[in-house]
Amino acid sequence: MVWLNDQQKIGVGLVSLGSLFLILGIILFFDAALLALGNVLFTSGITLLIGPQKTFYFFARKQKIRGTVCFFTGMVLVFLRWTFIGMLVEGFGFLNLFGDFFPVILNFMRQLPFIGSFLNAPGVREVCDKLAGARTSAV
């Protein structure tokens, strides 16, 4: 079992709250205040979760620069109250930055009690693997 220090626990809480505010902001017709608060909480939570130096290196990697520019440009557009366009640009950046983690998240969710049985159903499994970009082994 992985143990987190206090700073990482706060980071997990901030990422969770940031995600909640982002979802609420989208549900409530792109409310600029909720989306801006969600962006700040999510970004600061990532920084606390993995540390400032690793966060900088994650966003500054050469292969992630397009995602980084789109993600932060979308955040600025949301702060300037261009919420719909900002969220589109930010979503594109988010997919470019964090798209590599989707197969890992999918495998984790398949281990959960109720969700896992649904995600392992014959028709759903292939669709989820295709959407997450999971590669199947030839062996």
UniProtKB/TrEMBL annotation:
TM ranges are 12-30, 36-53, 65-85
Q: Which domain of life is it from?
A: Eukaryota
Q: Which GO terms describe its biological process?
A: endoplasmic reticulum to Golgi vesicle-mediated transport; retrograde transport, endosome to Golgi
Q: Which InterPro entries match?
A: Got1 (IPR045176), Vesicle_transpt_Got1/SFT2 (IPR007305)
Query: Where does it reside?
Result: Golgi apparatus membrane
**A Pfam match:** Got1
GO CC terms in record: COPII-coated ER to Golgi transport vesicle; cytosol; endoplasmic reticulum; Golgi cis cisterna; Golgi membrane
Assigned keywords, A-Z: Golgi apparatus, Membrane, Transmembrane, Transmembrane helix
Keyword Transmembrane in annotation: yes
Q: How does it sit in the membrane?
A: Multi-pass membrane protein
The answer to whether the entry has keyword Transmembrane helix is yes
Family label: Belongs to the GOT1 family.
Instruction: Name the PANTHER family on file.
Output: CGI-141-RELATED/LIPASE CONTAINING PROTEIN, GOLGI TRANSPORT PROTEIN 1-RELATED
- Name used for this protein in its record: Putative GOT1-membrane protein required for ER to Golgi transport
This chain's source organism reads Jaminaea rosea
Organism lineage string? Eukaryota, Fungi, Dikarya, Basidiomycota, Ustilaginomycotina
